[in-house]
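= Protein in question =
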Amino acid sequence: MTNISIARDLRIGSVLIGPPVVQAALSGYSDWPMRLLARRFGASYVVCEVMLDKFLLAVKRRSRTRHFLHLTDDERPVGGQLMGAEPEEFAAGAVKLVEAGFDIIDINFGCPVRKVLGRCRGGFHLSQPAVALEIVHRTRDAVPAHIPVTVKLRRGLDDSNESRDRFFEIFEGAFRAGVDAVTVHPRTVRQRYEGPSTWDFLAEVKRLAGSRIVLGSGDLFTAQDCINMLQRTGVDGVSVARGAIGNPWIFREVRAMLAGQPVPAPPTLAEQREVMLEHYSLAEQLYDVKLCGPVMRKFGIKYSALHPRHVTVRDDFSRVRSREDWQAALDRWYTHWSGEADEAALSQPNAPQPPPDAVE
């Protein structure tokens, strides 16, 4: 039975989220089909893949770019995440996200990718609190008052005391500027995804925050990981990132645990096949036919981690170029396992997570 103290509903500003488990922004992944499936399986809130302010100011709704701003009412509430370097352009980009219909604007000060840091974006802002807080102030002022603004942080550039001090300067300053919640990934930018995330730091941050809303991220690959983070750190919600790619079922499992209900059985291969077919069909509504296969290839690779023959299945999905290839892989690997053999195979531990290739 889940501790009732962690099962309270989450609210971000004026937006009632619900059970405190959400899908994080994931560059190259959290597009409309992924977000919609996450919502259907129990994610209370979803965030789009991060967008550059410069891109938003110049973007035209052409076939190759329309997917970035595509959203529908059945995925609400949905957040738009923004990244950039200049405070003025950042605020203007936030306005574009509001105009596109996003319910919450999320500021990314956490991306650890080298090319992002080299262009003074994402996690680079953790080195310059004055600029970071100017971005927050300008964004909050530019966005209508009823639209919540949130911030995503890592715990610093590195483990130095100077980085720690800068983190808390930005953290406190962001709340004073009027943000409604902060999500903290307790690895440093230098760590990227290496080594365990420091949940003790999350607990420290939440104690300092008091009643202010803090979400935690990092090392959430199972429903039990989500429950453990809520219980051990006291954060108000968990933001599932890489653990949700190819595994929307994680959200229904967390929600069952939060409600004190039996955890649903892992999805059978037949259930996985059904969702994977739907995922491709949703992608076809969004992408050009030539682009759809390559986009879905990376999702197939992630879905394959749940298959008892994951290495071979992963290799098959890595060659997907079209719906026909997708269908052939499903016919090959998701129809011939059934009954007791299917269930026995699925009861084995999941395959290790592949190296991270999604920017959280």
Remarks:
- The two ends are 31 Å apart (CA to CA).
